[in-house]
Every structure is written in C-alpha cells, then in structure tokens.
Amino acid sequence: MPSEGMLIARNLSKHYGGVHALEGVGLEMRAGEIRGLCGENGAGKSTFIKILGGLVRPDTGEISVNRISLHLGHQTDPKLVSIVHQELAIVPTLSVLDNILLGSRDTGELYFRGRFRETVRGHLDSMGLSHLSLDTLAGQLSLAERQLVEIARGVSRHAKVLLLDEPTATLSDAEIQRVFAICRYLRDRGTALVFVSHRLDEVFALTDSVTVLRNGRHVLTQETPTLTPKELVRAMIGRELVHGHLRPYPAETVALPRLRLTKLSIPGKLKGVDLSLARGEIVAVVGTLGSGADAVMDALAGLDDSVEGRIELDGETVAINGVRDAIRLGVAYVAEDRAGKGVFLDAPIGINLVASVMDRFSKIGVMRQRAERQRAVELASMFSIDPRRLPHEVSTLSGGNQQKVSLGKAAALDPRLLLLNEPTRGVDVGARSEIYSTLRRMADRGLSILFYSTDLEEVLDLADRVLTIFRGSVVRCARRQELTGDDILDDIIRGRSQAHAA
Known about the structure:
Largest sheet: 6 strands, mixed
Distance between the termini: 54 Å
Number of helices: 16
CATH topology of the largest domain: Rossmann fold
Number of domains: 3
Mean pLDDT: 87
CATH class of the largest domain: Alpha Beta
Radius of gyration: 23 Å
Helix content: 25-40%
Low-confidence stretches: 497-502
CATH architecture of the largest domain: 3-Layer(aba) Sandwich
Structural class: alpha/beta
C-alpha cells in the first residue's frame, strides 16, 4: 500500500494587491497517485504550481515533500518537485540534449555531455521522439516536439512529485497516449503526479483523484471514479454549463468556394492535398505529430516558401509567398504558441487588439487615438473581454483571455479566411464555449475558418467538416455528422487503403 503524505500543502495564500490568487488552499497526496488539478483559467492553479516549485513566495502556508519541509519562495530541489510548465521553458538556441539536462544537479561543475547521452536518448525514445537527434537545436522543433522534450526533462529528474501543467495541449491522441503510459509507469514506481488539463476526458482517463479550485479557493477533492463530468464542470465554474447550439453548415454545395486547394504539396510534409472551403464554413484539419496536417496552415499563412500546387481565393488563383501576401489577400492566422507568436505579453490589451491594423488609425503620421480605442472596445466586446481592462498588460490575463486577445487581433484584419492553429490550447471549459460561439457567429456572417487541432472533442464540437491526413496525404474529408472520434483516430493513426476525395 502506498505511503501517505508524499506531498502535504497547508493554508497556502497569495494576494496580488486586492486580488486573491489563492486563499487558504491545502492539498495532500500519497506516493503513487495521479491527482487532477482542475479549475477555470484564473482559478489559481498556476499560482499553486509556482508556489510548489518555489517560483512564487506565498503570503501564508507550509509545504512538505517526502517529510522534507520546503523553503518557500526558493527554487525547490528538482529531485523533490519537478514542473513541466504550460508555457514552455525550452531554450531555442540549445540542443535537445542540453535542454533535457538544463537545471539538473547531476551534471556537476564540469559538464561532460557524453555521460548522459544514452540516458537522455532513452527518455526521448519513450516519448516517441526517436527521430530526433540529440544535437538538434530546440528552435528547429515543432511546438508539439518541444512539449514532449519538456516532459522528457521533467521525467528525467526522477522527482518525488512531478507537476504537469497542460502537458498534452499541443499533442495528438497518439502522443497523449505515450504521455499517459509514462505517467502510469511513474505512478507505479511511487511518484506523485499533479496533472493539470482543461481536457476533462483526459482527467477522467488518467487521474485517481481530482482537486478543484475556483476563484483561488479549494472547492472539492474527490476520487475520480465517483465524479461525473457534469459534476466536475459544476464544481469548476459554479453553475451548469449551457452549450449554445452551434448550427452546422448547410449540406448544399456553394457554387464558388471561398478557398480551393488543388494538389497542394510541401516537399517532405504534404502530398497533393485537395480541399474546398465555402463561405461561412468551419473545417478542421487533423493528423498526428509529423503527419503534415499543421503544414496546411503554414502554407496558407505564408510561413513556408516551398509550397507547390494551386491556391484559389474566391475563384482567383493567388500566390502566398509570405505573411504580408497572406494579410493582403485577407488571410489571418492565429498561431498555436500565443505567448511566443500570438500576443505581446508586456503591452496593453487594447494595443494588442489593434496591433495588426495600426496603419488604419494613422493620418499623416498622427494616430487617431479615439478611433483606435473604439475599435479595441469593439473587438474586446466581440470576444467577451472586459473593456475596462484594455489598459492592462496581456500578461495579467488568464490563458483563456490571452487566447481571446490573440483571436481578436486576427479578427481586427476583417479577413475572409481565418486560420487557427490549436484555437483553444490551454483554455478552460467555460472560455472555450464562449470562443466556439464567437467563431460560429463570425462564420454566420460569411467568414471561412480552417483550423488544426489535436483535440478530438474540439474537432467534433466546432467543425462542419473534417479533413484527416496521414503521412502527408488526405485520408478523407467528411461532414462532422458522418464521423465519430474513433473514425478520426483510425484515419490519422492507421490511414485507409483508399483516400477519399476532399
């Protein structure tokens, strides 16, 4: 029987001015337990995790790990507590090997890489990254690959407590299952794991118990098998979640599509993708890491200069040779990495919302500030952002509200085609529902939306049609009502003997 009290936290409180980030929160875990930590964005989860890691000093409270009291506000020994953060701590100019070993206390003052190559290779292989060279610079990796490297670094610490903050947000189901297998392996060896995820199906699939925070306070701790999804959502948001009816796009064919792709190819990534996207339609592109599915977004956003094939917008053949071309043609893109590519964290929310269209508010070099603010207020209202917060920095917002800012910034361009890469990564269930409703309203007004997501629940909730890709080729394109999650999984993991026309 696992021992009790591997992690004990009592009466943790943290205030920022008049804001109560945490108020008297406690948690106790045994060795060999996976605990889900749930709550809306801004509920206090990240503050709690940062306190455990010694990155934030609480106003009150005490923590012990394996009967060792932690020195609060000082970085915790990674052999006691190791954290895989939601916003990645990967250094792009260092190799994969150096990133895995970064911060390790085992390297010594003289750093001999050769001593660790075999061990690190094993950790990467277990994450499904056998194709990565240890000497590859991290900056050359995709976001999903960087996420897996980050997880491998956390696992390599052999910590008593491993904190995983949204570790699967950028991963496809195949990679998620690898992460789950490693979590269960660590649990069986006696590690206590705290698992933070807004994907509630993952919480129910992996965890032994769940702790819910709401508005900085502890709401419940309960064994996972005794909870229902509805009960968990109610605990998280304090009410029943009302799903707005997302009207599916009508089945009839539109004579002139907004977007038509013919034999779209990118050497080594995509092979002959055909797709038509109608005005007001929302289409999901789905595939595993390395399948090339996300490369469709790169091609249309002007992020890849090796694109072959034909792209038509509203019946006109166009060339998208860079981001400026895409914007000029009415194509807006929201990146998967909002902190690195989507928003300016240290700039005001209002400035972020209109950053892509500043030239529209300038007359002979003078900014028309009233018009600029009016447009920012309109965009904030569109995405349910409190206009009173426009002067505040984006970094003060929760992850869900930061994503709304990133979407608003793209909407400011008044595009005819909106590209979304992981549209609700790290967004809580309440904010996710709001974003889906807003996107549907935008589509109802004629906007065409193409998105890539590794979240099958999101695909089935939001998409009118689903394009599945396996090893760079289209498997099929079908209406959402004709597909189940198992159908999509089968397509992207195994492919099919004969591809269906898009």
